[in-house]
Write a structure and sequence with these properties.
Blueprint: E1 2-6, E2 12-15, E3 33-36, E4 45-49, E5 53-61, H1 66-69, E6 76-79, E7 82-92, E8 99-106, H2 107-114, E9 116-118, E10 121-122, E11 125-126, E12 132-133, H3 148-160, E13 166-169, E14 172-175, E15 180-183, H4 185-192, E16 197-198, E17 202-207, E18 213-216, E19 221-222, H5 223-233, E20 238-242, E21 245-249, H6 251-254, H7 311-320, H8 327-341, E22 348-349, H9 353-356, E23 361-362
Parallel strand pairs: 17-21
Antiparallel strand pairs: 1-4, 2-3, 2-6, 4-5, 5-8, 6-7, 7-8, 9-10, 9-19, 11-12, 13-14, 15-18, 16-17, 20-21, 22-23
Helix pairs in contact: 2-5
């Protein structure tokens, strides 16, 4: 399942890559957030493919602004409310105008590719700029701290084992001497990310229930490989990044009815909704108050016109029905009486459609 949204951004923000570690200082890194005004609205596109892709593309012209100058590989952009990391920039200098075509990957996917785990312990490691990453992983070791002979010893041990069999899993090799543990998705993530975070910034949340499965936990993996374990062992799981948070849904939780929501499960670049009220009818049913005197069938008080005035009888009827009535309402009812029967409670209408049916209207109203 995939979807592409065109022209989705009313605002694009740009900022330099930032290091959240307190022990990292670099005055050359500009973490200021700028608003990019020179992007072409019709060039903005956000592509999402189930458990595979989440990226944004757009084209911007060089307007001399700091925002445009900040369009550099590995800097971050915010498109349609989500943060992405710039991975590709293609310049175009035709027509005397410089434009950049930008492709950016969602920040969660970027962190998943860059975070590494050594035997289920988050590693400390140096990036290309020699900045220390994941300093809170005190039990881990940097790549430079790992003795290559250790890895060779592991290989030799595997070769000398009674059963010589390995299973290749992307960048790692799982030996038969690895022990498997029956774990849930939550337990799997806690094993590889005991701090509750992936890297230094990405949190995660699990939505729905997942049955436990047996998985080897003592593997050397990238964070992305851990997520691949989830996708492989729980095939119905849906990975949905939301800024610096990774949501993992069961299919029943992801597709459940939330009200006022449309899920279109096909590839589409455009969707249009229309509204039609042609056949919409507003109707009201009016139900008047009722009077019930179980103790007597007699009606007390004034029930006839007083010197040709039906006002006192109308007020008495309202009182018996426990209904409050204003002077203007009394006058309105009196005018209807005058129109219908001219005040004659014995009047009979012998000319309308009811009379034609044999049920003529009788009385004041």
């Amino acid at each position: 399942m995939s979807t592409t949204k065109k022209n989705t951004a009313g605002l694009i923000l740009v900022r330099g890559k930032s290091y959240t570690h307190s022990n990292v200082k670099d005055d050359k890194v500009d973490t200021t957030t700028y608003t990019l005004h020179s992007f072409a609205p019709d060039s903005v596109s956000v592509e999402w493919e189930l458990n595979e892709t989440f990226q944004a593309t757009f084209t911007a012209a060089d307007d001399g602004s700091a925002a445009f100058q900040a369009l550099l590989v590995q800097n971050q952009v915010n498109v349609d409310g989500q943060w992405y990391v710039i991975k590709q920039i293609t310049p175009d200098y035709s027509g005397g105008i410089t434009t950049f075509s930008v492709t950016a990957t969602h920040v969660v996917y970027e962190v998943l590719q860059s975070s590494r785990i050594y035997h289920a312990t988050e590693m400390r490691w140096l990036d290309a700029d020699n900045h220390l990453q994941n300093p809170t992983a005190k039990e881990g070791r940097t790549e430079k701290e790992i003795d290559p002979s250790e890895l060779q010893d592991k290989t030799n041990e595997s070769d000398d084992a009674t059963t010589d069999s390995t299973v290749s899993n992307d960048n790692s090799t799982i030996n038969n001497d690895q022990q498997t543990t029956v774990v849930s998705v939550s337990e799997l993530l806690k094993s590889f990310f005991p701090s509750g975070k992936i890297g230094e910034q990405i949190t995660y949340e699990i939505h729905g229930d997942f049955s436990p499965v047996a998985i080897a936990l003592n593997q050397d993996l990238q964070a992305a490989d851990v997520i691949d374990l989830i996708k492989t062992n729980w095939t119905s799981a849906i990975i949905m990044p939301d800024n610096f948070k990774l949501n993992i849904y069961s299919d029943t939780e992801f597709y459940k009815h939330n009200g006022n929501r449309i899920d279109y499960l096909h590839d589409t670049s455009e969707m249009q909704l229309s509204y039609d009220t042609t056949n919409l009818t507003n109707a009201a049913r009016l139900i008047g108050a009722s009077y019930n005197d179980a103790s007597s069938g007699n009606v007390s008080g004034i029930t006839t016109a007083q010197n040709g005035d039906w006002g006192p009888a109308i007020r008495n009827a309202a009182s018996m029905m426990n209904v409050s009535i204003s002077d203007s309402q009394v006058e309105l009812i009196k005018s209807v009486i005058q129109h219908e029967s001219r005040g004659d409670e014995k009047a009979i209408n012998n000319w309308d459609s009811n009379a034609a049916k044999g049920t003529p209207s009788k009385g004041l109203l």
